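Example 9 (inverse folding). The structure is encoded as follows.
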């Protein structure tokens, strides 16, 4: 969003406030002025399942903001929120209500849950405008935080340009697949996202075990893309690995770990079907990335996914294992139907654009400048 905003031809000055740890690794737009706080932890680490930001770091971030003459303050995600002085209009983005809907799947301790709830309620109260990414998330925010409808604006997310612009290249695709231990001539089901309890990957593994019992589908593999080693948020990798072992699927289930976008695009393009089985999604960005790459899609009907897919894929109840098995078999066994879904995916992906979203955000900025 920030990259798209600064590319618009309006002549605004953008000041990006960053913690020291993020500034060391981030690739910020060159046209922005960067102000760096002397913090002890990166904001993403502090917002993890067991973390919280120290008072010292909050004060450091708040102090550097107070030294600037701002027309407005924009938080692209609520997890990075910290209190700023009154008088400066404030916009906060809440991407979802996953933590509020399934706290036991997100937080390991009651303390982490309490700090998250306190921060989100403070942000919701302070924000002059709340931005979210789907109708489902908007309704959830209204229900959980008691926000009025006119205080919430929906602005969609979108795939990065690398997913929409990448051309098919068999040689590069083969090279990428082999790099992650995937055989180019093997069919595979793909999941991309967090290796977290609320993603419902357990149901996907169980469904995959049943699908492979079909004689004509014994060659199909399951590829799970997601950072299970360095992710600061709650992970269930150990439990999923044990489940894979219990079903005797070690040779046909691949945990790739983190995959950068320029490789991920080829993994999307080569899959037989992409599956997002989450109990709830605020948007479902990986599903949109997969659609942009022309993949056939299966997604749960949890949260935003029905509105994001809009008939461009198969939907199933995330609590219904048989329903997912049926969706997988239909697509894997019916090549004509799979081709139809791939066409629908590509067409639906054209509705999502960071430039369009940035222009919508810019209109909000214009109405709120101090």
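The amino acid assigned to each position is listed next.
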């Amino acid at each position: 969003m920030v990259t798209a905003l600064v590319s618009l031809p309006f002549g605004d000055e953008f000041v990006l406030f960053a913690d020291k740890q993020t500034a060391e690794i981030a690739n910020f737009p060159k046209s922005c002025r960067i102000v760096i706080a002397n913090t002890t932890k990166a904001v993403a680490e502090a917002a993890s399942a067991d973390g919280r930001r120290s008072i010292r770091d909050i004060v450091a971030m708040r102090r550097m903001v107070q030294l600037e003459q701002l027309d407005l303050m924009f938080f692209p995600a609520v997890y990075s929120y910290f209190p700023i002085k009154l008088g400066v209009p404030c916009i906060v983005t809440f991407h979802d209500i996953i933590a509020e809907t399934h706290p036991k799947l997100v937080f390991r301790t009651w303390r982490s849950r309490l700090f998250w709830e306190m921060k989100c309620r403070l942000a919701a109260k302070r924000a002059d405008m709340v931005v979210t990414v789907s109708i489902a998330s908007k309704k959830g925010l209204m229900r959980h935080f008691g926000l009025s409808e006119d205080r919430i604006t929906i602005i969609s997310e979108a795939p990065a340009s690398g997913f929409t612009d990448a051309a098919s290249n068999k040689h590069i695709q083969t090279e990428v697949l082999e790099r992650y231990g995937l055989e180019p001539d093997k069919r595979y089901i793909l999941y991309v996202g967090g290796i977290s309890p609320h993603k419902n990957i357990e149901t996907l593994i169980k469904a995959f075990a049943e699908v492979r019992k079909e004689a004509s589908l014994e060659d199909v593999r399951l590829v799970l893309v997601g950072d299970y080693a360095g992710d600061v948020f709650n992970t269930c990798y150990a439990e999923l690995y044990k489940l894979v072992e219990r079903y005797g699927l070690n040779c046909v289930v691949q945990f790739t770990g983190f995959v950068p976008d320029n490789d991920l695009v080829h993994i999307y393009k080569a899959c037989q079907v992409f599956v997002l089985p989450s109990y709830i999604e605020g948007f479902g960005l990986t599903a949109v990335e997969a659609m942009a790459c022309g993949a056939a899609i299966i997604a749960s009907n949890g949260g935003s996914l029905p509105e994001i897919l809009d008939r461009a894929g198969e939907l199933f109840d995330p609590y219904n294992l048989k329903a997912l098995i049926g969706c997988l078999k239909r697509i894997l066994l019916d090549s004509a139907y799979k081709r139809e879904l791939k066409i629908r995916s590509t067409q639906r992906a054209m509705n999502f654009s960071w430039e369009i979203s940035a222009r919508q955000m810019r209109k909000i900025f214009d109405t709120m400048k101090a």
